[in-house]
């Protein structure tokens, strides 16, 4: 009986863990990376690209909302700086990247020219 028991044991002792391939240990990490990429990273990159397109398409007369919640109409654009008319006789200078959304664009070129 002791002989059968001795032959049934693997060399290296009972406490040794079974050895697998190196790829088998990395597979869960690779799967987690792909899940994070497709659920978190890729949608965020898409959102950043869409926001950049929105900022590139800004023009005089667009009604916008800033990331701080200020509503206004674009009066001038100079590079990355925008003059925003928020009330009659009140203009603020903001960074172009602070614009969160465009509410509406002027429908005709004349409508955009009346903003001074």
Termini separation (Å)? 101 Å
Name of the CATH class of the largest domain: Mainly Beta
Spans of 5+ residues with little confidence (pLDDT < 50)?
none
Name the beta content range.
25-35%
Q: What is the correct CATH architecture of the largest domain?
A: Roll
- Describe the sheet with the most strands: 5 strands, antiparallel
Number of domains as seen in the coordinates: 2
Report the helical percentage.
40-55%
SSE arrangement, N to C:
HHEEEEEH
The structural class is: alpha+beta
For the largest sheet, list the strands in their spatial order. 4-3-2-1-5
Rounded to an integer in angstroms, the radius of gyration calculated over CA atoms is 31 Å
Tertiary shape: rod-shaped
Can you count the helices? 3
Strand tally: 5
Provide an overview of this structure.
The protein is α+β, with helices and mostly antiparallel strands and about 120 residues long. The protein has two domains: about 35 residues; about 55 residues, SH3 type barrels (Roll). Helices cover about 40% and strands about 25% of the residues. It has three helices and five strands. A five-stranded antiparallel β-sheet has the order 4-3-2-1-5, with helices on one face. The radius of gyration is 31 Å and the shape is rod-shaped. The termini are far apart.
């Amino acid at each position: 009986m002791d002989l059968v028991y001795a032959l049934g044991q693997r060399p290296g002792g009972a406490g040794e863990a079974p050895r697998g391939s190196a790829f088998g240990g990395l597979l869960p990490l690779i799967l987690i990376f792909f899940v994070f990429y497709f659920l978190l990273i890729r949608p965020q990159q898409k959102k950043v690209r869409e926001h950049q397109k929105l900022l590139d398409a800004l023009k005089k007369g667009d009604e916008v909302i800033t990331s701080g919640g200020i509503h206004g109409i674009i009066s001038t654009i100079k590079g990355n700086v925008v003059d925003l008319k928020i009330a009659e006789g009140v203009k603020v200078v903001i960074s172009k990247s602070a614009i969160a959304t465009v509410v509406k664009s002027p429908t005709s070129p004349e409508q955009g020219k009346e903003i001074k």
